[in-house]
Design the sequence.
C-alpha cells in the first residue's frame, strides 16, 4: 500500500494503482483522453503529464503510465507540466474542426472541457487541417472522423475489449484513420459504447442525432429491462419522448458498458402506436370509468364464481412495485395467481435457479470477469444476455478459460471450447462432472470422446476461481439444479466458486419470489379451459406476443367471461379485452428490479409521460394546440392500476404499495435506502424448493433416432419483444432461420436455404433452413423472432419427429 | 585508401556478387560456429560478447553482451532471435551492402547469438525494398541448411535452429524493436514501452533477442578471434571493432566503408571519400542518420565512435554520414528531414503525430519567406515537448531541428529577415 503525496495531499493506495487514479481518489482529475478505467493505460495522448518532484521517478511523466510508489511527490499544477499539457491540447486542436455548434457531442465533450480547462485559446497553427471521409457504420453510430483526436480508445475498446475486428485503426502519422476497411454495419453488438467512450464527437448516437443538447434532456439513472442482467444506464427524454440511453458505470454489474439491445431498445416507450387510452371492448373512454368498469366486472365474477375464478398474469419484466401489489391483491382476495411465466417448465426453471442461488455462491456480472475458468451450461450469452459475453471475454483476456456446453451453435467474441451436446445429454454430463469433481470415477455418458469429462473436472478442480454459468431457457429444472450442485461441489474444493444464472425477464428473480410453488400461464389456461377461471387480468404481459401457443390462448380467452389488460405495448388483446388500462413504462413509473444475481436496483422516473410532441405537434414546434393537461397522459403506473382494481375505493394507493412491498418477501427489504444496489438476502429464500435428486426417467421419445429437438431461442436482436419495436434495431436483425447441423439437414432430407415446415398437433411453422456446423446433432434452433409466428407449439422446447418435418420447394 | 585499416565484415566483398558458402568457409567462415558447438559452452559466447564491448550497430549503441545476458537462464521456450534488417534510417545503406556481400556471415552470427540464448527460431525482419537481399538470404539459408549449418542437429550437435526471412510492410517505425515485434505478431507496429522487455516477454510473450544485421555479423569474428582482438580494431580505447560507415552528400566518393571506430571525421571525408565535391567547404554533417544532430566544422576532426559523439551531445547512430557543403541551405535540409519524420510517425502519441507536421509547417514558412521571428521560440518549445513523446522516434526526429537552431540560428534569421531562402537567390 504505497503512500504518496499529490499536490501536497497524502494518499494511501493499493499497489498497482496508477498515479492518475490515485489523484482521482483525492478528487483531482488529471486530464486524460486515452486513459479509460476499463481500457487501462497506454500513454498515447500525453495529456496526463504531471511533475514528479521527489521519489523514485523524476521529471515530467505521464501519470497514467506510472504506478504509485512510496515517497512519490507529485505536482499536477507544476508550471512545466501545465505548459506541456496546454501544448498537447494545441496539438490535438490542429486538425479538430470548429464545428461544436453542430456537433452532437457539444456540451458533454471531454475535448471541449479540456481545451477550455487547459488554457489553449488562440489558434497559432496556420497550415491546413487534414480531412477524412466519414463512413456509414449502420443505424446506431454516426461517424465523423474529422473530429478525431487519435486517443485510440475506440480501436482498443472495439478490438481488445469486445473482440471484434471490423473497426480499427488504419494509416500512420497524422493520417491515422479509425473506421472500417469499407463502410458498413458494425458487427459488434456492443458498438454503441463507442459513443460513450469517444472523448469527442467522432462517434455519436445516430437515432438521437440533432435532437438536443445534454442540458435539454431530462436525464435520470435508469435500468435496462431487455434481459435479466440489470445493466445500469442513464435515460434521457426530450419533448415527452425517450431519446437516448447511455451506459451508467456500475462496477458491480455492467462495468462501464451496455449492449446495443439495451442502448437502443427504448423506442417502445414513445412509438406512435403505444396505447395511451383506456378502452372498454375497444372503445376509448375515461380511465376512471374504465377502471370502475373493470373493478365491477371483477366483483361480479367473484360474486358469481368465487374469488378463484379471477386470475392474474403478470410480466417478469414488471417492476417490483407492480409484482408486490399484484401479489398482495391475489393474496388478499384469493384470486388465482399471479402467474409470471408462460409454461410450467419455464416457471419451474426460474424458481429452481433462484432457490439454488445460495449467498456463498452468487457472483455478480462484474465478478464473473475475475473468474479463472467459466463453465457455461445451456446458455447462449451473446443472444440471451449480451453483456455476459463481454464479461466472459474479459475472463479470456485475463488468461482464463471458457467452456460452453450447449446444443446451439454458440458464438462468442473470443476463443472458447464448445461442447455441442444434445439437450438430452446435458443432465448426464453434469452428473458425471459432479461425480468427477467429488473424486469419484464417473461412468462416461454417451458423448463424443472429444468431450473429456475427467479432464474438464480436473481443470475445474484445479482452478483457483471457477464459475458456473447456467441458462434457464432451453434446460429442464433438473439440469438447472445440477448446475447449482456442480458449483456447490466445486466450493468444497475451493474457497471461491461462483454460480451465475441467467433468467427470462428483467425482474424474473422477483417473480420467482411471488410463490414457493410457481404458477404459469399454462396452468392458468388449464383452469380457464376447465371453467375454473372466468376472468383474467393480464398485467403488462402481452400474452398474444409471448405465450408460446397463440391458438390455444385465443381459444381459452374466448371461454372467459371477461378479460382485463393492463399494458404499455400495443397488442390485439388490448382491443379484445373487456377493459384495457394503459400503463407506464419504467421511464414514467420508475421502480425497482431484481436482477438475476439477486441485486435490487432502482430506476428513477425520467419524465412525466404524455404523447411525444413529435406526434401531437405533427412535427410542428412549439405545439399549436393548447390544453390544460398533457395529451396522452392517462397511463398509470401498473401498480396503481392494479391497486385501483383491487381496492375498495379510489383512496391514495401509496400506503397499499408500502404494505405490499414490506410483505413481498422476507428476502427483499426496501425499508432502508442502502438496500438498493445491494444483493437481497438470499439466505431468506427457501433453498429446498426443487430437489436436484436423481435424473427423471427420460420420456419414451426424449431423443428418438428419427426426431430432432426444436428449440425456440433468443437472438440478440429481433426476439426480445420490447427492443424488437425499436426502428434502429430492426435494421440490425437477421431474418429468422432454422439452424441445424449440416449433417442433420442431409439426414432429415432438408435443403439449406429452403424452407422447412414443422407440423405438430395441427400447428405449423415454416422457416428457411440454415446450416450451422457448430450445432449439436439432433437439434433445430429457431428464433422467437417478431417476424415469425413462432407461437404454435405451446413450449419453446419440443420434440419433432422426422415425419413432422416437410421440406418446402420454395 | 581504406586498405590501410583492417577489414573484417567487408574483407571479401566483391564488386558484383556475394561471397558463396564455399568461399566463406575457405576464408574461415562457420569455424566459430563449429568451435562453439563442439568445444565451447554457451556461457563462453556470452562472456566474449560482453568482454568485446560490442555496441549495437542499429543506432542505439546498446551493449550486445548485456542484452544477451538479460535472457534469463530459466526463461521459457521457445525463444526467438530477431535480426533487424529493416534499414530505413535515411542515409543508411550498410546492411544492404553487407547482405549483398556476406549473407553467410549474418547466418553464422545469428546461429551463434541464438545458441547463446538457446533460441530455436530466427527471423530476419527485412524491409520490402531489399527484395534482392531477401532473395539472397532465403537462397543462402537453404544452402546452409543443406550443409547442416542450420536446421536440425547443426553440425552434428544437438542444437536446432531455423531462420525465416520476413518482409516488412515497410515503415520506418518498424525498425524500432518493440514496434517490429508487434509487426511480426501481425499487430499494428506501434512501439510498446517496456517493461516487459523483449528479452523477457517478446514475440508471443516469449524471450526474444533482437539485434541489428551488423551487430550479429560481428559475432563470429569476436568468437573466433577473441574480445581483445575486437577491441584492438578500434582507434580509441573506449571503442571496439570496426563500423560500416555510409557516407553520402557533397563528397567526391560517397559509399559504404568499413573503418575502425574512433576514426576522425576529417579522415573519412578526405581520405576515404576523396574530399569535398568540387572543392567546396565542409559546412556540416549528420554523423549517424536523420535522427542525429548536425556536426559543424567545429567538430571536423571528431573521433567517430559512440563515446566521442555522446560527449559532443550527438550520437553515432547508424554511422550514416551525410555531408553538407557551404552551398547547402540548412533550413531546407532540416525541412526535408522533418518531412520524413512527419510522414513516418506511427501516429500513436500526440506530440510526435501532431508536432512534426506543425514543425514542418513552420520550417516550410521560414524556408519560403513566410517566417517570423516568433517562430524560433515556438520551435524550440515544441522540440522540448517532443522529447516527452512515447518512444525515441520524436527525440531523434527533432535532433536536426534542435541542432539547426543551436548552430545555424543566423542562417534561420537570414531566411526570416530576408523573407526567403538566401541560397536560392
Sequence:
Amino acid at each position: 500500500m504505497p503512500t504518496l503525496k499529490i499536490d501536497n495531499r497524502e494518499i494511501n493506495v493499493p499497489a498497482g494503482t496508477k498515479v492518475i487514479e490515485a489523484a482521482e481518489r483525492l478528487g483531482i482529475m488529471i486530464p486524460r483522453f486515452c486513459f479509460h478505467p476499463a481500457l487501462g493505460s497506454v500513454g498515447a495522448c500525453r495529456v496526463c503529464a504531471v511533475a514528479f518532484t521527489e521519489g523514485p521517478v523524476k521529471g515530467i511523466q505521464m501519470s497514467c503510465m506510472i504506478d504509485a510508489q512510496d515517497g512519490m511527490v507529485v505536482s499536477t499544477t507544476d508550471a512545466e507540466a501545465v505548459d506541456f499539457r496546454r501544448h498537447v491540447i494545441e496539438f490535438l486542436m490542429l486538425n479538430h474542426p470548429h464545428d461544436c455548434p453542430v456537433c452532437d457531442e457539444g456540451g458533454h465533450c471531454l475535448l471541449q472541457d479540456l481545451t477550455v480547462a487547459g488554457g489553449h485559446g488562440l489558434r497559432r497553427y496556420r497550415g491546413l487541417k487534414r480531412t477524412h471521409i466519414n463512413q456509414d457504420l449502420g443505424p446506431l453510430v454516426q461517424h465523423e472522423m474529422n473530429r478525431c483526436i487519435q486517443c485510440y480508445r475506440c480501436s482498443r475498446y472495439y478490438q481488445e475489449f469486445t473482440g471484434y475486428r471490423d473497426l480499427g485503426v488504419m494509416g500512420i502519422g497524422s493520417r491515422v484513420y479509425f473506421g472500417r476497411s469499407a463502410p458498413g454495419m458494425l458487427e459488434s453488438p456492443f458498438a454503441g459504447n463507442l459513443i460513450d467512450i469517444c472523448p469527442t464527437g467522432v462517434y455519436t448516437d445516430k437515432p438521437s442525432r440533432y435532437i438536443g443538447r445534454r442540458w435539454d434532456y431530462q436525464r435520470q439513472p435508469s435500468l435496462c429491462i431487455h434481459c435479466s442482467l440489470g445493466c445500469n444506464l442513464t435515460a434521457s427524454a426530450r419533448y415527452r419522448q425517450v431519446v437516448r440511453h447511455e451506459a451508467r458505470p456500475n462496477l458491480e454489474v455492467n462495468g462501464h458498458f451496455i449492449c446495443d439491445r439495451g442502448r437502443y431498445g427504448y423506442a417502445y416507450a414513445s412509438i406512435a402506436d403505444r396505447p395511451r387510452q383506456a378502452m372498454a371492448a375497444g372503445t376509448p373512454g375515461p380511465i376512471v370509468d374504465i377502471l370502475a368498469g373493470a373493478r365491477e366486472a371483477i366483483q361480479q365474477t367473484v360474486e358469481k364464481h368465487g374469488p378463484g375464478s379471477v386470475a392474474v398474469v403478470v410480466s417478469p419484466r414488471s417492476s417490483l412495485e407492480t409484482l408486490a401489489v399484484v401479489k398482495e391483491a391475489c393474496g388478499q382476495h384469493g384470486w388465482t395467481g399471479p402467474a409470471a411465466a408462460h409454461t410450467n417448465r419455464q416457471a419451474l426453471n426460474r424458481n429452481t435457479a433462484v432457490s439454488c442461488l445460495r449467498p456463498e455462491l452468487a457472483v455478480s456480472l462484474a465478478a464473473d470477469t475475475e473468474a479463472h475458468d467459466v463453465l457455461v451450461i445451456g446458455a447462449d450469452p451473446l443472444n440471451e444476455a449480451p453483456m455476459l459475453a463481454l464479461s466472459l471475454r474479459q475472463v479470456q483476456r485475463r488468461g482464463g478459460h471458457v467452456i460452453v456446453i450447449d446444443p446451439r451453435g454458440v458464438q462468442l467474441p473470443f476463443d472458447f471450447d464448445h461442447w455441442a451436446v444434445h439437450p438430452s445429454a446435458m443432465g448426464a454430463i453434469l452428473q458425471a462432472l459432479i461425480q468427477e469433481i467429488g473424486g469419484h470415477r464417473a461412468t462416461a455418458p454417451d458423448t463424443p470422446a472429444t468431450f473429456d469429462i475427467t479432464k474438464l473436472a480436473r481443470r475445474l478442480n484445479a482452478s483457483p476461481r471457477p464459475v458456473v454459468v447456467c441458462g434457464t431457457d432451453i434446460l429442464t429444472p433438473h439440469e438447472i439444479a445440477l448446475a447449482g450442485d456442480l458449483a456447490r461441489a466445486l466450493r468444497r474444493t475451493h474457497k471461491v466458486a461462483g454460480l451465475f444464472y441467467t433468467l427470462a425477464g428483467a425482474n424474473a428473480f422477483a417473480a420467482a419470489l411471488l410463490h414457493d410453488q410457481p404458477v404459469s400461464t399454462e396452468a392458468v389456461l388449464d383452469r380457464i379451459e376447465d371453467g375454473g377461471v372466468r376472468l383474467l387480468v393480464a398485467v403488462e404481459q402481452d400474452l398474444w406476443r409471448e405465450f408460446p401457443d397463440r391458438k390455444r390462448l385465443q381459444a381459452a380467452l374466448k371461454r372467459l367471461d371477461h378479460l382485463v389488460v393492463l399494458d404499455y405495448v400495443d397488442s390485439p388483446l388490448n382491443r379484445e379485452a373487456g377493459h384495457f388500462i394503459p400503463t407506464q413504462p419504467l421511464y414514467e413509473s420508475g421502480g425497482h428490479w431484481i436482477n438475476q444475481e439477486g441485486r435490487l436496483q432502482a430506476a428513477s422516473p425520467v419524465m412525466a409521460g404524455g404523447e411525444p410532441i413529435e406526434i401531437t405537434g405533427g412535427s410542428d414546434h412549439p405545439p399549436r394546440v393548447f390544453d390544460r393537461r398533457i395529451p396522452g397522459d392517462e397511463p398509470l403506473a401498473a401498480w396503481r392500476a392494479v391497486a385501483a382494481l383491487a381496492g375498495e375505493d379510489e383512496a391514495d394507493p401509496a400506503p397499499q404499495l408500502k404494505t405490499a412491498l414490506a410483505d413481498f418477501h422476507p428476502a427483499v427489504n426496501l425499508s432502508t435506502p442502502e438496500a438498493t444496489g445491494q444483493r437481497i438476502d438470499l439466505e431468506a429464500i427457501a433453498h429446498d424448493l426443487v430437489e436436484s435428486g436423481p435424473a427423471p426417467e427420460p420420456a419414451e421419445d426424449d431423443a428418438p433416432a428419427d426426431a430432432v429437438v426444436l428449440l425456440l431461442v433468443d437472438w440478440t436482436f429481433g426476439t426480445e419483444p420490447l427492443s424488437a419495436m425499436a426502428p434502429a434495431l430492426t435494421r440490425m436483425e437477421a431474418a429468422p432461420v432454422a439452424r441445424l447441423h449440416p449433417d442433420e439437414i442431409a439426414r432429415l432430407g432438408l435443403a439449406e436455404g429452403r424452407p422447412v415446415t414443422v407440423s405438430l398437433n395441427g400447428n405449423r411453422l415454416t422457416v428457411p433452413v440454415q446450416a450451422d456446423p457448430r450445432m449439436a446433432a439432433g437439434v433445430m434452433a429457431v428464433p422467437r423472432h417478431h417476424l415469425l409466428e413462432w407461437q404454435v407449439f405451446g413450449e419453446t422446447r419440443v420434440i419433432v419427429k422426422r415425419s413432422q418435418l416437410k421440406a418446402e420447394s420454395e | 585508401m581504406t586498405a590501410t585499416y583492417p577489414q573484417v565484415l567487408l574483407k571479401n566483398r566483391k564488386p558484383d556478387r556475394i561471397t558463396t558458402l564455399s568461399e566463406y568457409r575457405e576464408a574461415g567462415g562457420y569455424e566459430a560456429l563449429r568451435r562453439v558447438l563442439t568445444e565451447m559452452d554457451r556461457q563462453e559466447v556470452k562472456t566474449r560478447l560482453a568482454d568485446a564491448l560490442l555496441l549495437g550497430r542499429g543506432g542505439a549503441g546498446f551493449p550486445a553482451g548485456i542484452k544477451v545476458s538479460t535472457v534469463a537462464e530459466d526463461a521459457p521456450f521457445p525463444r526467438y532471435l530477431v535480426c533487424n534488417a529493416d534499414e530505413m534510417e535515411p542515409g543508411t545503406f550498410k546492411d544492404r551492402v553487407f547482405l549483398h556481400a556476406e549473407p553467410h556471415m549474418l547466418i553464422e552470427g545469428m546461429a551463434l547469438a541464438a545458441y547463446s540464448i538457446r533460441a530455436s527460431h530466427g527471423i530476419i525482419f527485412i524491409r520490402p525494398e531489399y527484395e534482392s537481399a531477401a532473395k539472397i538470404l532465403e537462397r543462402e539459408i537453404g544452402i546452409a541448411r543443406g550443409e547442416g549449418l542450420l536446421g536440425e542437429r547443426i553440425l552434428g550437435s544437438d542444437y536446432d535452429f531455423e531462420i525465416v526471412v520476413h518482409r516488412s510492410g515497410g515503415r520506418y517505425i518498424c525498425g524500432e524493436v518493440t514496434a517490429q515485434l508487434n509487426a511480426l505478431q501481425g499487430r499494428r507496429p506501434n512501439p510498446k514501452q517496456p517493461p516487459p522487455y523483449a528479452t523477457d516477454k517478446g514475440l508471443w510473450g516469449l524471450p526474444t533477442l533482437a539485434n541489428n544485421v551488423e551487430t550479429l555479423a560481428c559475432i563470429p569474428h569476436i568468437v573466433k578471434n577473441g574480445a581483445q582482438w575486437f577491441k584492438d580494431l578500434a582507434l580509441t580505447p573506449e571503442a571496439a571493432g570496426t563500423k560500416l560507415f555510409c557516407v553520402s552528400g557533397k563528397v567526391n566518393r560517397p559509399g559504404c566503408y568499413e573503418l575502425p571506430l574512433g576514426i576522425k571525421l576529417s579522415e573519412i571525408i578526405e581520405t576515404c571519400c576523396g574530399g569535398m565535391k568540387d572543392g567546396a567547404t565542409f559546412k556540416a554533417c549528420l554523423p549517424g542518420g536523420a535522427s542525429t544532430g548536425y556536426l559543424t566544422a567545429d567538430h571536423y576532426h571528431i573521433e567517430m565512435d559512440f563515446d566521442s559523439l555522446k560527449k559532443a551531445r550527438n550520437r553515432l547512430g547508424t554511422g550514416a554520414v551525410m555531408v553538407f557543403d557551404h552551398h547547402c541551405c540548412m533550413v531546407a535540409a532540416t525541412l526535408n528531414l522533418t518531412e520524413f519524420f512527419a510522414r513516418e510517425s506511427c501516429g500513436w502519441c500526440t506530440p510526435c503525430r501532431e508536432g512534426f507536421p506543425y514543425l514542418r509547417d513552420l520550417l516550410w514558412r521560414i524556408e519560403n519567406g513566410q517566417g517570423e521571428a516568433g517562430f524560433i521560440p515556438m520551435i524550440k518549445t515544441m522540440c522540448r515537448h517532443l522529447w516527452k513523446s512515447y518512444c525515441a522516434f520524436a527525440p531523434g526526429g527533432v535532433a536536426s531541428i534542435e541542432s539547426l537552431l543551436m548552430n545555424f540560428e543566423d542562417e534561420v534569421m537570414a531566411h526570416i529577415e530576408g523573407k526567403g531562402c538566401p541560397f536560392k537567390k
Q: What stands out?
A: Residues 2-232 of chain B form a domain with the Rossmann fold fold (CATH 3.40.50.11540). The mean pLDDT of chain B is 95. The longest strand of chain B covers residues 242-249. The CA atoms of residues 81 and 122 of chain B lie 5 Å apart.
